[in-house]
Write a structure and sequence with these properties.
Layout: E1 2-11, E2 21-27, E3 30-35, E4 44-46, E5 52-55, E6 57-62, H1 75-84, E7 87-92, H2 103-110, E8 119-122, H3 138-144, E9 149-150, H4 159-169, E10 176-178, H5 183-186, E11 191-192, H6 195-200, E12 204-205, H7 207-224, E13 233-235, H8 241-252, E14 257-262, H9 264-267, H10 289-301, E15 306-308, H11 316-319, H12 336-343, H13 348-362, E16 378-389, E17 406-417, E18 420-423
Parallel strand pairs: 1-4, 1-5, 6-7, 7-8, 9-10, 10-13, 11-12, 13-14, 14-15
Antiparallel strand pairs: 1-2, 2-3, 5-16, 16-17, 17-18
C-alpha cells in the first residue's frame, strides 16, 4: 500500500532533511521518494496542520506482563499501546513470569518482531529470579537478542555481583542497568518520606535509599577503571537531587555512566497522594516540586540522557485496594510524548533526540536515518493537535492512570515499521 505524507517537518539530526518540510512517499513500509509538493497517484494521504516526522521512537521503561500475567496486558495489546504512543521499538524489563533469564523467554518476547509495527527488545536478568544471588547465562542471552542486563524492578543489591557483571559485560559490549534503591531502607515503604508521609500515616521511602546505591555503584564503576565511549552503567528512574548531582559529577570525571527519568517524576508530586488514589503509587515514589525543577534542569543540560514511560499495567484487583496493599505502577507508554511535550521543559528537537538517538546509542542498536530508498521506522505526529485520553482512546486493557479523561496535547498520527503503516484511529 502507498502513502503520501504531505508537508511534514523532519526531525532527524542525522538526515540531510533535518528541520526541512517535505513530502514523503512510503510504499510497503519503504521511503521511495522525498521532495516538495509531490504529485502522487493512488496513495493514502497523511496530513495535518503541524505534521512532523522522525525516526521511530523507542522507550526503555516498559514492564511487560506477558508471559505470566496476560490478564493485565498481552504482548499484542502492548504493541497496540506502543504504536498509538508513537513507539516502533520498546525495551522490556525481565520481571515477567517466568523471569527473562533464558533464551526461550527471549525468543518468546521477540516473536512477531519481523512483521509487527512494534519491535520488542527484551532486557535480561543479571541474577537468577532477580534475587541478587546467582548469575544468569548472560552471554547466551545476549546472543539470543537481549539488549541489556538488569534485574529490572529489583535493585541489584549485591555489590560483588554488580562489580563482576560490569567486568563480565565488557568483552561482549554489554550495558548494565540498575534501579538504584537500597532495599533495606526502602522496605515496606509506600511513598516519599517527608511531611506528607507523616501526615498520611504511611511508611516513607527516604531519598537516601536511592542516593546510597548511586554512590556505591559509581564507586564500583570507578574501581573497575573501565574506559568506554558509551555508558556501561545506566541508572533507571533517577528521582533525587543528590543522586542526580552524583551522576553529573561522575560524568564530569569521565566515568561511562548514564541515567534516565520516569515521566511520572515530572508530572506528579507526593501531594497528589493525599487523595489516597493508588494510581499515584509508583516506584520510585513521587517526590516534590523542588525535585521536579532539578530533574528538568538535568534533562536540559544532558545529565539525564533519556526520558522513559515507566509503563506498568495493572488490573483493577491490583489497584482498587487500600494504598498500602495496592501494587506499584502506572500506565504511561501511550501518553509519554504528550506529557513530555508539555512538562519536560525540553524543546521538541531535544525531546525527539532523547526518544530516538540516545536510547539506541545506549543499547548499542543501529540508529536509522530518514532518506530515500530506505525502509526506516518512522513516527508521524502533530505536536499541536489535542486529543482526549479516555477509556475509548486508551489502547491498554489496564486502566491504572490518573489522567484518564483528560485532554492532552501532541497526537501521534501513524507509525511505520517492518513494512507496516499503522494509522492512529483516535
Amino acid at each position: 500500500m502507498k502513502f503520501h505524507v504531505q508537508k511534514a517537518t523532519v526531525l532527524d539530526s542525522n538526515s540531510a532533511f533535518h528541520q526541512k518540510t517535505v513530502d514523503l512517499v512510503i510504499e510497503n513500509g519503504k521511503i521511495i521518494q522525498i521532495g516538495t509538493d509531490l504529485e502522487v497517484e493512488n496513495a493514502t494521504v497523511i496530513s495535518s496542520e503541524n505534521l512532523h516526522v522522525s525516526i521511530g521512537w523507542m522507550d526503555l521503561g516498559v514492564v511487560a506482563t506477558d508471559p505470566g500475567l496476560e490478564y493485565k496486558e498481552t504482548l499484542e495489546t502492548l504493541r497496540s499501546v506502543a504504536a498509538a504512543g508513537g513507539f516502533t521499538d520498546i525495551a522490556t524489563t525481565p520481571n515477567t513470569k517466568p523471569i527473562v533469564q533464558d533464551k526461550s523467554t527471549i525468543h518468546y518476547l521477540k516473536q512477531g518482531n519481523a512483521t509487527s509495527t512494534v519491535n520488542i527488545h527484551p532486557m535480561a536478568a543479571i541474577t537468577v529470579n532477580c534475587e541478587g544471588k546467582d548469575f544468569t547465562e548472560m552471554m547466551d542471552m545476549q546472543q539470543a537478542g537481549a539488549v541489556a542486563f538488569t534485574d529490572g524492578l529489583q535493585p541489584l543489591w549485591n555489590a560483588d555481583i554488580l562489580l563482576k557483571t560490569l567486568l563480565y559485560l565488557q568483552p561482549i559490549n554489554g550495558v548494565l542497568i540498575n534501579r538504584p534503591e537500597e532495599p533495606t531502607l526502602a522496605f515496606m515503604g509506600q511513598m516519599n518520606e517527608g511531611l506528607m508521609s507523616t501526615q498520611l500515616g504511611m511508611k516513607g521511602i527516604p531519598e537516601t535509599a536511592e542516593e546510597l546505591m548511586i554512590m556505591r555503584d559509581l564507586e564500583l564503576l570507578a574501581y573497575t577503571d573501565i574506559k568506554s565511549e558509551k555508558p556501561v552503567l545506566h541508572f533507571a528512574k533517577v528521582s533525587t537531587i543528590n543522586g542526580l548531582k552524583r551522576i553529573k559529577e561522575a560524568k564530569a570525571k569521565g566515568l561511562p555512566v548514564s541515567c534516565d527519568v520516569s515521566i511520572n517524576q515530572l508530572l506528579y508530586t507526593e501531594d497528589d497522594i493525599s487523595t489516597f488514589d493508588s494510581n499515584y503509587k509508583v516506584s520510585p515514589p513521587l517526590r516534590n516540586e523542588k525535585t521536579i525543577k532539578a530533574l528538568k534542569k538535568g534533562l536540559a543540560d544532558g545529565t539525564i540522557d533519556l526520558l522513559i514511560s515507566d509503563h506498568y499495567p495493572h488490573d483493577e484487583e491490583a489497584k482498587k485496594l487500600t494504598f498500602d496493599d495496592a501494587d506499584f505502577g502506572m500506565l504511561g507508554l501511550q501518553t509519554l510524548f504528550s506529557n513530555a511535550l508539555v512538562e519536560s521543559g525540553l524543546t521538541l528537537d531535544e525531546l525527539i533526540t532523547k526518544l530516538t538517538i540516545n536510547v539506541r546509542n545506549l543499547l548499542r542498536l543501529a540508529v536509522p536515518s530518514i532518506k530515500e530508498n530506505t525502509a526506516v521506522p518512522l513516527t508521524l505526529f502533530d505536536p499541536e493537535k489535542k486529543w482526549i485520553y479516555d477509556e475509548k482512546a486508551n489502547k491498554s486493557t489496564a486502566l491504572n492512570s490518573p489522567i484518564l479523561g483528560k485532554e492532552l496535547k501532541g497526537l501521534v498520527l501513524a507509525t511505520v515499521n517492518n513494512g507496516n503503516v499503522q494509522l492512529n484511529n483516535l
